[in-house]
Amino acid sequence: MLSRIARKMNGLVRPRTMHTRNIMSVAEQHDMYRDTDECFFAGLYLSSIRTALRSFPDKKRRILDAGCGQGRLAIPLAKEGYRVDAVDMTPAAVERGRCYAAGEGVTVNFTVEEIRGFLRKTADRVYDAVLCIEMLYMIPEHQSVLADLVRILKEGGILAVSVRPRLYYVLYHMMRKDLIQVETALVSSSSRDHGFFSWWESTSLREKLTSLGLCDVQLAGLGVATGIDGDPQACFARPSDFEADEQRAKLLQLESALGTRYPDCGRYILAVGRKGK
Fold it and tell me: Which end of the chain is more exposed for a tag (fewer CB within 10 A), N or C?
């Protein structure tokens, strides 16, 4: 889905309003809750997130899904008993999420709001876990938003964020034979804005999260050898190419192993850490 936004942007700085409209347009049109490929990647995220949440014996913990879209992570966690607040700026995506939650018979506290405004109104140390998946890299103020995501975490709370790796943009523009943009991605400093988009490397991401007070930071590549339309990794395979459930289950295992070994080589880098010593 988000690769379509990148194609629209084409590496150029656009006004914030156009950037926001592009994001909302794709979020309205693409079904991230039921799409086969998106369900596969949601499973990868949830596997790592659930592992981190095992430290909470009480399931009545409060979780924020920042940039929730249609609830592909929020709804499964609510089904497991967590209290989930879910925030997204796209009204159509949130409305669809509410319908999916109702269909699953669970309650998710959905809110339509831009994440920076939501965070400004949120007190310190409110949440036991905060998720910000496939969203942070699209925000020009991603550094300050990341700091706020840590701020609203309780001591001992879990943060899970995913960002674009530098290599993704190198390969993305190489596929399009845009050598100027390839060079830009290679020589620019870590996490520099790429138009409105940003990238990280695993070492700089770990350092940043540690400086914000997180410990035990675990990093993994998400989608090292599989992708969706527009991703460089889609040249290898797409999850929807594998029709049998047992094949996709095996693919999930292989992707998990690849992600641990090659965190910088996926569609995203997933970082999961705990606040406090």
Answer: C
